[in-house]
Amino acid sequence: xxxxxxxxxxxxxxxxxxxxxxxxxxxxxxxxxxxxxxxxxxxxxxxxxxxxxxxxxxxxxxxxxxxxxxxxxxxxxxxxxxxxxxxxxxxxxxxxxxxxxxxxxxxxxxxxxxxxxxxxxxxxxxxxxxxxxxxxxxxxxxxxxxxxxxxxxxxxxxxxxxxxxxxxxxxxxxxxxxxxxxxxxxxxxxxxxxxxxxxxxxxxxxxxxxxxxxxxxxxxxxxxxxxxxxxxxxxxxxxxxxxxxxxxxxxxxxxxxxxxxxxxxxxxxxxxxxxxxxxxxxxxxxxxxxxxxxxxxxxxxxxxxxxxxxxxxxxxxxxxxxxxxxxxxxxxxxxxxxxx
Length: 340
Known about the structure:
Helix 6 links the parallel strand 7 (160-164) and strand 8 (192-197). 39% of the residues lie in helices and 16% in strands. The chain folds into two domains: 5-142 and 319-339, Rossmann fold; 160-306, Glycogen Phosphorylase B (Rossmann fold). The strands form three sheets. The protein has a six-stranded parallel β-sheet with strand order 2-1-3-4-5-6. Strands 9-8-7-10-11-12 form a six-stranded parallel β-sheet, sandwiched between helices. Strands 13-14 form a two-stranded antiparallel sheet. Helix 3 (70-82) packs parallel to helix 4 and helix 6 (175-188) crosses helix 11. It is built from twelve helices and 14 strands. The chain is an alpha/beta fold. 39% of the residues are buried.
């Protein structure tokens, strides 16, 4: 069974494109509006789905359903089922990084898990959690996002540590706390600290301590719009260590980029970051109990002291990505055959 028509949600994303088998035919609503790259896929709308459901053999949901209530998702999956289109679900996030509390995302996931013909996730730990909901998940590792997945030559080891706070989304640890703890680790190991933030939040009161540290020369504060993909790669190549400031989370594509670019990662012990890449330096953080600042300082100092990280072998990463694509093809074929 070749040439299966796959509708992915979202239609375009680096991960979606990395796992797509060359044997399938992607179907999509057309070009993404560059001014609204995160706008919901139009086929989440019932009328749009009715119009286009005959164009797809399999629907593959990754993320991008934040705007839908569980009843709306149930209606959407019921429409797929009534049209004979099977659902493949990849669980990237067990805890939505844009939600204050886990309840809504958990209810959304349950609806999708109950309806999915095939379930995929990225790590054994996440699969074990999904198993508690009585669904078995196929574990397929996060593939390389770069093409080719090889690190460009790096200009030595500058001991530069970066924390990108972006627009202070819901899962960012209190900025003053995480930056202060990171700064202590950087100072202990003789490094330099760079903090990036988007202009829409730079004047928020949560960043008063960060602005003060920048004024005192203890860190470099850079304010700019969201990086495009090329800018992000250049930024991560420029860093030696990237600190993930996450209060909660599951998996990270940012981490995968660092892995292929030779950038060390300091990440919280929530989620399954270390299952993605064992070379991650972990620090203690719990959504309710808060940040263990001493462990963060220690992890940053340890990452700097460890020196350059061994870059993932490009040939192994290409082989891994090819295997992930073959596995997706098998999932699609199995789902399509069962849906007939």
